[in-house]
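Hi F.,

I've been meaning to write this up properly since the lab meeting, where we talked about keeping a consistent format for the predictions we share between groups. The idea is simple: the sequence comes first, exactly as it goes in, then the structure tokens exactly as they come out, then a line or two of notes. No screenshots and no reformatting. I'm using this chain as the first example so we have something concrete to point to.
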Amino acid sequence: MEPCTSDEFFQALNHAEQTFKKMENYLRHKQLCDVVLVAGDRRIPAHRLVLSSVSDYFAAMFTNDVREARQEEIKMEGVEPNALWALVQYAYTGRLELKEDNIECLLSTACLLQLSQVVEACCKFLMKQLHPSNCLGIRSFADAQGCTDLHKVAHNYTMENFMEVIRNQEFLLLPATEIAKLLASDDMNIPNEETILNALLTWVRHDLEQRRKDLSKLLAYIRLPLLAPQFLADMENNALFRDDIECQKLIMEAMKYHLLPERRPMLQSPRTKPRKSTVGVLFAVGGMDATKGATSIEKYELRTNMWTPVANMNGRRLQFGVAVLDDKLYVVGGRDGLKTLNTVECYNPRTKTWSVMPPMSTHRHGLGVAVLEGPMYAVGGHDGWSYLNTVERWDPQARQWNFVASMSTPRSTVGVAILNGKYVKATFNFYLIILM
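Output, unedited:
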């Protein structure tokens, strides 16, 4: 009988796991250790082979012709001892406990030791902890550690939740250089530029003696031409700006933008460009439901990227007008399928209630509606018999409709928009309304 000559290969199960368990046992009993890491008052014996297998930092240190490669003790300057011990244990076990009270020390030490998987895990942990009260600190820490993904996420979170961020202590403690970076961003999610200016003034007053000198430099990042004229007039008399020549120059630049609307194309600058805000919601009002006019109203929120039903009009309407006045949604005129309407409804999104408003003097469908510097205008349309050139204005103070100058030409299914303090008309209709 001839012996078997075929080759065989044996693969031990859990070989790597058992080997590392044995090396971890050597670590705990300080056996066969060939290097000691010194951090503060703590001495941590370890094995060069294990450290260099996991950490690119130690691999470069122990495999190159440098002084540390031959030293039995390595001083780890500026490294937190507990974080270093936790990461040494990780090198043997592949396990690491992440907690709020140790995460920053672990991340900074992992960055130094070039433990890429640990860095990624720590960054993901911090991303989950983001909150308006800590996002600025996390953003700054990520920048200092060179963690670009974490910095980007923290920065975006800060911009998205800026209204809540400015109410927290971290904002008040920021240096002027960081405030400048925030104010320069186009991505700040705020309802208006006044919000940012008020945040800046709150920051300045937190340490007025030291921060007054930075005011004009930081004010240059505020888009003053986008402020209301009344707000600019109040700024001019504010004690913080009155005696600062550079601040006065910026205020005058903004006032010129308002006083000379015909020159605005020549006055464009980074300060006249609106920011990319997602504050507010988009309302879709009415439309057609099969063969009938729909009564439903839905809203779209950019933050959630979702449409949700919010209310129903009191009755069916087609070819009506919609406008926003004083944060309320007005539904004006239209037709119900049988007759042309002059009725007006008002929806309050905060209280989720409808109010019946005084009717227009004229029944109108296919009209255009817009708000111009306070009053609301109902333009043109059809009264069921003929096309209209008449225009009515709703005075919110007197709570009544009054006729104003008529159009030169009767128009129906007319669209109306505001441009440079005047209303502009065109023959189309559009029922998507942004409510801030």
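Notes:
Residues 281-435 form a domain with the Neuraminidase fold (CATH 2.120.10.80).
Residues 426-436 have pLDDT under 50 and may be disordered.

If this format works for you, I'll send the rest the same way.

G.
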